[in-house]
Amino acid sequence: QVQLVESGGGLVQPGGSLRLACAASGNFFSIYTMGWYRQAPGNQRELVATTTSGGSTNYADSVKGRFTISRDNAKNTVYLQMNSLKPQDTAVYYCHAHNPLFGVDFWGQGTQVTVSS
After folding, report:
1. CA pair distance 83, 34, nearest whole angstrom
2. DSSP sequence for the chain
3. Is residue 1 very low, low, confident or very high in pLDDT (cuts 50, 70, 90)?
4. Phi and psi (nearest 5°) for 88?
5. CA neighbor of 55 nearest in space, from 67, 66, 71
6. Stretch 64-85: mean pLDDT, rounded?
7. Residue 105 has what pLDDT?
8. Which residues make Cβ contacts (< 8 Å) with residue 35, sequence separation at least 6?
9. How far apart are CA 53 and CA 38, in angstroms?
10. What per-residue confidence (pLDDT) applies to 116?
C-alpha cells in the first residue's frame, strides 16, 4: 500500500509560479511511475505529466514548456514546478503512483490550484 500526500497548492496570479510536492509512503518508490493529474469543475480528470523509474517524462500539450515534473527517490517525493500559470490551469491537482510490476495504482487526495487575479 502506498499513501500519497500532496502539498503546495494555493492561489496565484496569472503568470505566477507554484511548486507542488507529493510525498509517498511505503517502499520501492523508485520503481513507480509517478504522475500528476488535474480535474477542473465539470471536466474529466486529465493527465498533466508523468515520470518513469528511468527518468523519462511526458507532458500534456497544454503544459509543455511551462511545467516540469521531477522526482527525488531518496525523499520518496515527486514535484511539479508550474510556471507561467494561466487561469485555465485552475483545478484540483492529484498525485498518482503506478506500480509497473503489479499493475496497481494509487491516488492522493488532491490539492487545489487557483490561478486568478
Report:
1. 20
2. ---EEEE--EEE-TT--EEEEEEE-SS-GGGSEEEEEEE-TTS--EEEEEE-TT--EEE-TTTTTTEEEEEEGGGTEEEEEE-S--GGG-EEEEEEEEETTTTEEEE---EEEEE--
3. confident
4. -75, -5
5. 71
6. 97
7. 95
8. 47, 48, 49, 50, 51, 69, 78, 95, 96, 97, 98
9. 21
10. 97
Measured distance CA(106)–CA(1) in Å, rounded: 8
19 pLDDT higher than 90: yes
Residues 6+ apart with CB under 8 A from 16: 85, 115
20 within 8 A of 34, measured Cβ to Cβ:
no
Grid cell locating 50:
508523468
